[in-house]
Amino acid sequence: MCTYRYREPLSGAELYHYGLAGTDGVTPTTGGLQYQQASKEVAELRKLRKPDAKMPAPYAARKAAILYEYENRWDLDNHKQNVAWDTYGHLQKYYSALKRVGAPVDVITEDKDFSQYPFLIVPAAQLVDDQLVARWRTYAENGGHLVLTCRTGQKDRRGFLWEGPWAKPILDLIGARIALYDTLPAPVTGKVTAGDKTFEWSSWGEILAPAGTSYSGNQGVMPSLNISSTETAVPPTVISRYADQYYSGQAAAITRRFGKGSVTYIGVDSRDGNFEAALIRGVYERANIPIANFEEGFVTDWRDSFWVATNFTDKTMTIPAPESTKLLVGTRTLGPAGVTIWQDP
Known about the structure:
Elements: H1 30-46, H2 57-60, E1 64-67, H3 70-78, H4 87-100, E2 105-108, E3 119-122, H5 130-141, E4 145-149, H6 171-174, E5 176-182, E6 190-194, E7 197-210, E8 215-217, E9 220-222, E10 237-242, E11 251-258, E12 261-266, E13 268-270, H7 274-286, E14 298-303, E15 306-311, E16 317-318, E17 327-329, E18 333-334, E19 339-343
Parallel strand pairs: 1-2, 1-3, 3-4, 4-12
Antiparallel strand pairs: 5-7, 6-7, 6-10, 7-13, 8-9, 10-11, 11-12, 14-15, 15-19, 16-18, 17-19
Helix pairs in contact: 4-7
């Protein structure tokens, strides 16, 4: 819980930034009243807090990390290629997808230990080196479920493209060649399918040629890349294809069993994030991990023995708690901008 300022300013560049008190410096604003209420609730919750409580096992099994590096973001933002590309928005689609399955999520940097997370999402990690890719490989071999997304592995740490196949360091890991990439100018959009649903894309799309197949486009045939395949690193399965235009029928996302874990590569940045949500759900389902099915914007987290449900949607939602559960804050049906807090019996 935080606040920006006490009193709303009377002049200056931040004229319309609310404070806890209004322009008279005395009367609480709506935000001020909410801050006061939340402060009282926090004081009461502290009496019930159990800092040594263990994370519930089903919740812990979904634990995920998103890998984020500032240098990578700077490099992407310095050369977006398409004005619609949004590096942070791309990451946010995966964060949202994880919250929709009810996963606890940490955003981590490369120096952290990957092994404590059953699921590791790597969105658009454009700058890589052999050491980082080797760590991803070890993570999957030891049972982790690795998800790499479009624009990953394209450059070395200097920002140079590799002298070799596109995204050279990750090809043996994902089990495919990236045959080509494309972006679509506004207002043009393309379509991509996952399961029985169709989604739109425009800012970035990669056509994948899985091991054992060759890409055949209008310009001719690109031979299959020689990708290692063993008993524990099998050829990939296509989980998404392009549905229209020049790209129709080509692979857009793939997954493969890798050691004790799995590696999934998603070559498309969708327009609204529902595509990413569908594929992340599939990663959990293939790992046989029970998941939630929350609406976009309905977030449920656990910390220090407390469950906290927050409703960022425009609908009334029902919290995922048994009827017998005693609520500490809020109600069982949660309106827009509402919050409910409870503890397990």
